Amino acid sequence: MINLETPKKFRPLVDQANQVAKEVLRPISRKYDLAEHTYPKELDMLAALIDGMNEGSDIGGAGAAGVRRSADAAGAGENRNGSNLSTVLSIIEMCWGDVGLLLTMPRQGLGNSAIASVATEEQLQRYGGRWAAMAITEPEAGSDSAAIRTTAELDGEEYVLNGEKIFVTSGERADLVVVWASLDRSKGRAAIKSFIVERDNPGLKLERLEHKLGIRASDTANFRLENCRVPKDALLGNPTIDVKQGFAGAMQTFDNTRPLVAAMAVGVGRAALEETRSRLANAGIEIDDAVPALCQHAAAARFLELEADWEAARLLTMQAAWMADNSKPNSLQASMAKAKAGRTCVDVTLGCVELCGSVGYAENELLEKWARDAKILDIFEGTQQIQLLIVARQLLGKSSAELR
Fold this sequence. Notes:
alpha+beta; 3-stranded mixed sheet; about 400 residues
């Protein structure tokens, strides 16, 4: 049976991540929100410290590096708490500090999770310790990853990539970019594969950096791939196009990374709730969890509603991560967690701004920043609408062709 309390062995990790968020990320949060596109040099020392912790511990340090399903996961009747759950717990704490700074942490990109999810052992060794961004979105293929138009053609011992990628998180700063491309567009989803592209590859051309509503500490790049040549073994996982398997191979990446994005939303939401509870207490409004909401101050009732929504998102996120650790199919739960946490984070942060009035709207506090940061967590790694569509297909047993 799954127990959704923090496992005892992960409590030191959670405490460590909370300390990093409190002592390092929170103090520079506003600084790099205002100084968009400026690299936070404070993170270099922090990344080196996390690397040391990862080397000296079997549960890792307080980062957001890649996660991988274990081939020797729990047997019958045995629960396994592994890297997926520990990473989710760590991300929640770090994003309580600052989600934009977490996203720009060296060697902690979403591309690292993609590599960890599908790479061979040899590829894991070759690309270990390097910072990887992930390039999926295109101008005409946003939420529908299956509509990717970037192509990869085999030419001897190299693949030649051509296309355009937009909204690549940490694209300018990363060492590697995981590019999703199609080996044969006539074969649809099954032909979509991911490729490792070195950031200094001359065929990977940086077009521009985006100015954004939130997560301004993180750079968001647009790229054009023009006859971008990569080695044959830069293709992650199996190069075979399996029409029967369809999009399942590519979806394995999302099954691992969507709970991580949900965890980011849970962390930001918790930050807003804690600050709002403190502000309401200072205003003389006490919140009593043992008293029915309708018998309390209207502000307290609204706060309890937001908090209950947030708790549901947190539990769904932990469930999706736990299932990945125990090699249980979690596509449904990963999408449910991402959908619930993304929407809840937006509702919670905006609700907290409303409850705190002018204090919530002013730049001298972080509530307004968290409200801006929250929106992207409902969009990237699959929008709210796409997640609900995936959930509907899973529950109704429909294919993507049958339910659009």
